[in-house]
């Protein structure tokens, strides 16, 4: 007879999560490192009570972390999962209503970036005894709809547990998705508040330790032969290393293949660090925020080997980066949907296993010395460009100089983290990465506010590394409350707050689309003009951080910034270094384009000129549906 354990739904969830493990390459680790939560009437008596029991030493302990913002705690979980190569993550619980919908943005970010997070929002009463309850959405056409249905399009798996009997299948299905490299993303199990507190007799085996084996799919032999045939026919191949290289731990295999076959390597945002910056075949960043070295090689490439990349518009420069009419693609990806992009020859497999297979299939073949020499020369020239950008001597400093100072302060294994604004693009093309985990820029969703919360996640995942969070004033104003969490938990992050009095990235973009930095500066409204073009606002974000309990250091020059970063290393808790920069000094140009539409008609000369430039740039855009055919006969 099956042994039964009587627990509430909330208690069973906590016991189950604490018992889940993942395994890859013989190494096991807990799938859930803990649970972030903000409590309200929709989850306190259920999951809250269960987490309290766990904290007091009940079996199945799952550590609770108190967050300050529901969106931010999902970002922390996603950053943790990325740092752990998607083998471990956090659960996040909220109340119903606004607490739940605050997590929707975080869910979208996790799913777009293919990062596993488990979301447990509270929900309305399953029994419907006294509707509408506090914070319930009343839908006139259906009584089984709540605000939590907003999670459906941004979750890789969604379920709502109306009865305790439904919980086992929901938990097992959710965990399957979380641990599948091809399917993973945000997973949501909505838990009605009355069901969370309801008791049930659970089969003991549901709560027993369970190991989820994370697969490494090997390439199909015939698919490997087809891919190798395409590459062997190339004269100017290029590898595009995406995040899949790093998640798979395939960096040694990538390096071995590149060296043996003489194929230069360019990197996406998620793939940056796949090769050390000073490797002779490392071209650096590709695409709209790329290096001149990578983009010039890409423009002439006849075969592009994408490894673990989604081919976002920034990577392909809105499909203008690959200029050869006969360019062909070989796509290594664990997800079939990504492997067939750009009409590529798909190699559906784990990146490490696929690269090993390709190395064997290409044994004895390599590119010509002239091509490899060109790649080395372009890469060396770009390093000189970086050095100039790092040492401009401008005052107030240029953003590139701030990046250079942080790059110099960071150790070989330290991590730089960013997400939104102009800094991700500048970091992509300038940062000298020495370790596969040394670069963490969230650019799938490019979510303002991810930075500080994400920094906490990386530090929790890798406490032996210094984590440098680069954040602009715009992102800081949107979501800085997790500094309080860092203080409470004693989590050491070094936040470099770059103050440029507005939205620098969109300000620069606005000029290219003929909108003249409209709505991008932080200014008083001018009573004479009626516009936001008055004096600079007297905002002191450093003082704000200090009020949250963070150690604050101020710098005005690069020398002072370098000194502050040295001092910050000696601190035990979170530190914020504040520096003001000149947003009008651009980073080096990438010789690449990004497709942002420009108004087709306008009364403004600047907009009309921008439209003319836009239409000219559009002529280089290509569908990339295969090698181009000649004109019809």
Features:
single chain, 633 residues, alpha/beta, six-stranded parallel beta sheet, 23 helices, 23 strands, 18% strand
Structure description:
- The protein has 633 residues and is α/β, with parallel strands linked by helices.
- Helices cover 36% and strands 18% of the residues.
- The strands form five sheets. The protein has a six-stranded parallel sheet, with helices on both faces. Strands 14-13-12-15-16-17 form a six-stranded parallel sheet, with helices on both faces. Strands 19-18-20-21-23-22 form a six-stranded parallel sheet, sandwiched between helices.
- The protein is globular and about 75 Å long.
- The model has no long low-confidence stretch (mean pLDDT 95).
SSE diagram, text form:
Elements: E1 4-8, H1 9-18, E2 20-24, E3 27-30, E4 32-37, H2 44-55, E5 64-66, H3 70-83, E6 89-94, H4 98-101, H5 104-112, E7 117-123, E8 157-160, H6 167-178, E9 186-192, H7 193-196, E10 199-203, E11 210-213, H8 221-232, E12 237-241, H9 243-248, H10 251-261, E13 265-267, E14 282-285, H11 292-300, E15 303-307, E16 328-333, H12 336-339, E17 345-348, H13 351-361, H14 369-390, H15 399-409, E18 415-418, H16 423-430, E19 439-441, H17 450-461, E20 467-472, H18 473-478, H19 482-489, E21 494-499, H20 504-512, H21 541-547, E22 551-555, H22 558-569, E23 575-580, H23 605-618
Parallel strand pairs: 2-11, 4-5, 4-6, 6-7, 7-9, 8-9, 12-13, 12-15, 13-14, 15-16, 16-17, 18-19, 18-20, 20-21, 21-23, 22-23
Antiparallel strand pairs: 1-10, 2-3
